[in-house]
Amino acid sequence: MQPRVIIFDYGSGNLRSAQRAVERTGAEVTVTGDPRAALEADGLLVPGVGAFEACMTGLRAAGGDRVIGRRLAGGRPVLGICVGMQVLFERGVEHDVSTEGCGEWPGTVERLRAPIVPHMGWNTLDVPEGSRLFAGIEPDERFYFVHSYGVRRWELHPTSGHIAPPLVTWSTHGEPFVAAVENGPLWATQFHPEKSGDAGARLLANWVATL
Amino acid sequence: MTLAIRVIPCLDVDAGRVVKGVNFQNLRDAGDPVELARRYDAEGADELTFLDVTASSGDRETTYEVVRRTAEQVFIPLTVGGGVRTPDDVDRLLRAGADKVGVNTAAIARPELIAEIARRFGRQVLVLSADVRRTADGESTPSGFEVTTHGGRRGTGIDAVEWARRTAELGAGEILLNSMDADGTKAGFDLELTRAVRAVVDIPLIASGGAGKVGHFPPAVAAGADAVLAASVFHFGEFTVGDVKDELRAAGHPVR
């Protein structure tokens, strides 16, 4: 059976590339803003471009934050991409205005401190051992980023031996920031796998293989 | 970990066909932008830029179709510029599958357009494209460079360096700096222009115009370009995207 993937459409930018890129993995892909379909799919992909506040407002209006929460409570996979990753954190701060995020992870999305912003283009990653998201991908492979904000501190450190520790992938632009996370059913990337050529295709296939 | 210097082929598209000529062997249809996009992707292009030079707005729908078909087959970022006048134009291009949108003349006429687009879609979608030439004696701007329209034929008297600074402040995500003096000369990028704009903006800068040999690319990067763009040298197979990257790598610049 082909896994069924929903790309959640809450009014955010170019979803066509994401749809085609995930279809290439063999999954059956639907782009929709229907929360019920998003709840029931094998995998939910949460895209996002632009401002944190605008994305969060759109996501809430479409019921997306609740869908994400319910899926995760039931152990069902969610993949956030770019601002779709950022909104999973507690809050985003833009121009000194703080906006509440989905709060699935502690931490703050803030402006990158680098000489040139946006961070735009292909960068390398520091991938932790045991990553399933990056399985089969060369260590020096580059992925496509385009963002002005990021998470500079990872704050979730579970102490219970029963919970697998989150795997955090870092990249550097001016200073280190979170480039990807694998945490139980919730995975996310700050870069755009759907725009990252063959390496991005492999990464999406790795996610779809878990569905 | 360092960001790679981007190498960007640019295709002029008129009513759905590539114009200005291409000269590739083993290409079924040299005029098909989608096929060329695939070829450049395979050669290692980091992004692609389509410049829509369609004169008649009635043919604009053809451009959207080209963008749609490209986005279905090419999985690297695609910028589309030409004829973008309103935020709704941007919306249509993004929905067709563009990742970034180039804005040029309309922003000169109405700079607030930059802020409107940045507010609605985020500044990362907005590539401010400027066609710049050196000013003639007696018409000089403070920097000695001015913004032009109509493919470089008409000067505006707007200081190009000040314009770049202002557009970055208004919300442009990136600047595509095209030297009309260098364009077509194959004598190299205008390094003085690149340096002057680099000194006043902290957003990514794409150098364009004048590439004639691979040796022209590293100096543009040394002058402050984060990305380099070229058209005919790639179309006519004088060298490939890979050749440019080899040259950049040899000069010590990170490439993908």
UniProtKB/TrEMBL annotation, chain A:
UniProt GO molecular function: glutaminase activity; imidazoleglycerol-phosphate synthase activity; lyase activity
Question: What GO biological process terms are annotated to this protein in UniProt?
Answer: L-histidine biosynthetic process
Q: Where is the active site?
A: C82, H192, E194
Q: Identify the main location.
A: cytoplasm
Q: Which SUPFAM superfamilies match?
A: Class I glutamine amidotransferase-like
Its Enzyme Commission number(s) read: 4.3.2.10, 3.5.1.2
Report the residue ranges that make up the Glutamine amidotransferase domain in this protein.
7-208
Keyword list (alphabetical) reads:
Amino-acid biosynthesis, Cytoplasm, Glutamine amidotransferase, Glycosyltransferase, Histidine biosynthesis, Hydrolase, Lyase, Transferase
**What reaction(s) does this enzyme catalyze?**
L-glutamine + H2O = L-glutamate + NH4(+); 5-[(5-phospho-1-deoxy-D-ribulos-1-ylimino)methylamino]-1-(5-phospho-beta-D-ribosyl)imidazole-4-carboxamide + L-glutamine = D-erythro-1-(imidazol-4-yl)glycerol 3-phosphate + 5-amino-1-(5-phospho-beta-D-ribosyl)imidazole-4-carboxamide + L-glutamate + H(+)
Give the protein's function. IGPS catalyzes the conversion of PRFAR and glutamine to IGP, AICAR and glutamate. The HisH subunit catalyzes the hydrolysis of glutamine to glutamate and ammonia as part of the synthesis of IGP and AICAR. The resulting ammonia molecule is channeled to the active site of HisF.
**How does this protein assemble?**
Heterodimer of HisH and HisF.
Q: What is this protein called?
A: Imidazole glycerol phosphate synthase subunit HisH
UniProtKB/TrEMBL annotation, chain B:
* One Pfam entry name: His_biosynth
One GO cellular component, as annotated: cytoplasm
List UniProt keywords, sorted A-Z. Amino-acid biosynthesis, Cytoplasm, Histidine biosynthesis, Lyase
The Gene Ontology biological process annotation of the record reads:
L-histidine biosynthetic process
Instruction: Give the highest taxon in the source lineage.
Output: Bacteria
Stated EC number for the protein is 4.3.2.10
Offer an example of a GO molecular function term for this protein: imidazoleglycerol-phosphate synthase activity
Q: Where in the cell is it found?
A: Cytoplasm
Catalytic activity annotation: 5-[(5-phospho-1-deoxy-D-ribulos-1-ylimino)methylamino]-1-(5-phospho-beta-D-ribosyl)imidazole-4-carboxamide + L-glutamine = D-erythro-1-(imidazol-4-yl)glycerol 3-phosphate + 5-amino-1-(5-phospho-beta-D-ribosyl)imidazole-4-carboxamide + L-glutamate + H(+)
In the UniProt entry, which residues are flagged as the active site? D12, D131
Q: In which pathway does it act?
A: Amino-acid biosynthesis; L-histidine biosynthesis; L-histidine from 5-phospho-alpha-D-ribose 1-diphosphate: step 5/9
Q: What NCBIfam families does the annotation carry?
A: hisF (TIGR00735)
Recorded family membership = Belongs to the HisA/HisF family.
Function as written in the Swiss-Prot or TrEMBL entry: IGPS catalyzes the conversion of PRFAR and glutamine to IGP, AICAR and glutamate. The HisF subunit catalyzes the cyclization activity that produces IGP and AICAR from PRFAR using the ammonia provided by the HisH subunit.
Relate the assembly described in the record.
Heterodimer of HisH and HisF.
- Protein name, as recorded: Imidazole glycerol phosphate synthase subunit HisF
- Can you name the source organism? Spinactinospora alkalitolerans
